[in-house]
Every structure is written in C-alpha cells, then in structure tokens.
Design brief:
Elements (H helix, E strand, L loop, with lengths): L1 H11 L1 H24 L1 H6 L4 H20 L4 H10 L13 H4 L5 H10 L3 H11 L6 H4 L3 H7 L6 H33 L5 H24 L1 H26 L3 H17 L5 H44 L1
Length: about 325
C-alpha cells in the first residue's frame, strides 16, 4: 500500500519523479565509478583476474544493450497496425496511413486515445516495458545529464533505466561484488581498502534495489497508475462537457439573472448579493449531486468488471 502510494505520488508530481530518478541515476553512476576505480588496488596487489572478469562482463552488458536497442516501442506499434490488430470504433481496420507521419510514442498515444484505443495502448506498452532498454537509458553519466535536462521523465524511460540497471546488476555488478568480497576476505590489503569497501557498499545497495524492482515491478505499476490517471482525467473532462452546458445549469443562471434584474433598480446591493449566493449554492449542490452519481456509476462499473473477471477465472 505504501509503495503504491509513493509511486502514485510520482505520477501526480512530475518534479518529484524527476528528483527521485536523478538521485537513483547518481547512485548508479557512483557504483560504476567506484567499480572501475577499484581496478587500481586490484592491479597493485597483482589481482589481475578482477579487472579482466569485470571488463568481460561489461562487454556482455554493452552487447546486450546493442541487441535490445534495436527494438523500439513505436516499431512494435507499427507492426501491430500493419498486422491489422487495431480497429476504429465502427470496426474498420486501422492502417498506417490513418496514423499519419506523427509516428512517435506521443503521436501513437494521441491517435489511439482519440479512437477509443487507450486501454490497448497502455496494455501494449505494459508488455513492451519489460524489455525496454536503449543506449539513452544505459550509458552512465551521459544518461544522468540527459534526464536531468528533461522536463518530464516518461514511465517508459523509467522502465528503460530500471531494466538497464537490472541488466548491469547481473553482469558487471555481480562480477564486481564477487571480486570485491574475495579481495577483502582472501587478500585483505591495506592499500586501497577504502575504495574497495566503498565499491562493495554501493554495489550491494544498488543490487538490493534491483531485486526490489524485480519483485515489485515498478515499471508495470507506473504504467498502470499512468493509465488510471489518464482514465480519471478523461472521466472528468467527459463529466464537465456533459454537465456544465446542460439545461439545469443554464436554467438556474437565467433564473438568477431574472431575479437580480427584478431588484437591480431598487438600490439593494445586499439583496442582489443574497440572490447570487443562493443560486450559486444551488448550482454547486447540483454539480456535487451529479459528481456523486457519476462516482457511484463508476464504482458499479468497476465492481461489475471485478465480478466478471472473477467469474471468468
């Protein structure tokens, strides 16, 4: 519950999300820095196996990024459209020409939301973010600079950073942990011990956060929270578009104007104020009642979906 609340706060407050991600990236950069600075004590003690093994696993890390970077979310959406997986509300198959030239993630999102495919977009993105890794998310120091200058960090970018860190943990970081533990226990040098211990502590902390990410699946939770926030925003807009220009509201305002006009020439400002306040209270009560009805209907729909899912299970 606490974890979900914290992640929900990240969705609602982009600045907080940027601060948290920046701190996370600084920790990862510190981990990388101390990992490769520790090469000096290893070499001074003649422990050449550690730099060689860590460098080998780093090459595996870079090669895996090279393979993963070739797969783009926009390319996945394009392939889905080319395979005829998406349809307009009237049942017509969506073609790539319908999307137009704006074939970016935001362009696809706007198009799919406008055509009632918002749930499908977030579902496809949820399936994709489990494997999302690019050079932008993976290169230490450069990625920190990149995202520090970014106004808002998307859920897809957070997923890419976390996935890149998980990949780093099971390649370079794991080899560094093994070499550091062996170095401190078996060789136990005096020179350079602080560097090794600093590298060991930061690596263990980062590895623990990686395991926590795998257990909780932060990218999936963020994606779902972003979907819920988008649905809530759509519901509010639909409610405002339905309620605000409706006849009861317009009728109340006309009645208010007529009542004010009946006393406007009598030099009674207090009476006018009371009339306006009376009708403002009536309008507010009407809106509150409509919101309560809309919330009740939303709860009934969610309850019905839950029961339907349980019955299907």
């Amino acid at each position: 519950m606490c974890c979900g609340g914290c992640l929900n706060a990240l969705i609602r407050y982009p600045r907080l999300k940027k601060i948290v991600v920046t701190i996370w990236l600084l920790l990862l950069d510190a981990d990388v820095f101390f990992t490769f600075v520790s090469f000096q004590p290893y070499v001074d003690e003649g422990f050449f196996l550690a730099p060689a093994l860590i460098s080998l696993f780093t090459m595996f890390y870079l090669f895996a990024i090279f393979l993963a970077d070739r797969v783009k979310f926009t390319r996945r959406l394009t392939l889905n459209i080319e395979c005829g997986m998406y349809h307009f509300p009237d049942g017509k198959v969506i073609s790539i020409e319908d999307v137009g030239r704006a074939q970016t993630e935001e362009g696809f999102k706007e198009f799919m939301v406008a055509n009632g495919l918002e749930e499908q977009f977030y579902q496809d993105r949820n399936n994709f973010i489990r494997h999302q890794v690019t050079w932008k998310h993976s290169v230490p120091f450069l990625r920190t600079t990149w995202f520090a200058c970014t106004a808002d960090i998307r859920a897809l970018d957070v997923a890419g950073i976390l996935n890149a860190d998980a990949l780093y943990s099971f390649t370079t970081r794991m080899s560094q942990l093994g070499m550091s533990l062996y170095f401190t226990m078996a060789i136990n040098p005096q020179q350079g011990a602080m560097i090794i211990w600093a590298s060991l502590v930061i690596s263990i902390t980062s590895f623990y956060l990686t395991i926590l990410n795998i257990a909780v699946s932060f990218p999936k939770v963020l994606n779902q929270l972003e979907l819920d926030a988008a649905n809530e925003e759509q519901r509010k807009k639909a409610f405002e578009n339905t309620v605000m220009p409706c006849d009861p509201i317009l009728g109340m305002r006309k009645a208010c104007d007529a009542e004010v006009a009946s006393v406007s020439g009598l030099d009674k400002p207090d009476a006018i104020q009371e009339i306006m306040q009376k009708w403002a209270d009536k309008e507010r009560k009407f809106l509150d009642d409509m919101k309560a009805i809309a919330a009740m209907e939303t709860g009934q729909v969610r309850e019905g979906n839950t029961v339907g899912e349980a019955g299907h299970a």
